[in-house]
């Protein structure tokens, strides 16, 4: 009985922990960065993503200030040209490749 309860608990936690992954995609965010932001930023996605740690990116995104932070890092970006439904993917890209991450983007 204890093992069954433990398995159910672990499954529930893993499902809750992956909701962001289900809603957005870091690979799509990387493609969006390459296509929509890279020219305006003037630097690779590595520099953008490594501007903050994963915790900092999460805090910025949760507070609703993610587009403003991107504008601060890349002043030439025109926020009105970025569709609202692209932001979660761009966030996942920044989060996945953040300063404290061991991943390196290909852009």
How does this structure look, described?
This protein has 107 residues and is an all-alpha fold. The chain is built from seven helices and no strands. The longest helix has 16 residues, at 2-17. The radius of gyration is 16 Å and the shape is elongated. The mean pLDDT is 86.
Biggest β-sheet description: none
Number of extended strands: 0
Helix content: 55-70%
Q: Which ranges are low-confidence, i.e. pLDDT below 50, for 5 or more consecutive residues?
A: none
**Gyration radius over CA:** 16 Å
Number of helices: 7
Mean pLDDT: 86
Give the percentage of residues in beta strands.
Answer: under 5%
Order of helices and strands: HHHHHHH
Q: Please identify the structural class as seen in this structure.
A: mainly alpha
Shape: elongated
Distance between the termini: 49 Å
The gist of it:
With 107 residues, this protein is mostly helical. It has 7 helices and no strands. The chain has helices at 2-17, 19-23, 26-41, 45-49, 54-62, 66-73, 87-96.
Question: What's the layout of helices and strands?
Answer:
Layout: H1 2-17, H2 19-23, H3 26-41, H4 45-49, H5 54-62, H6 66-73, H7 87-96
Helix pairs in contact: 3-7, 5-7
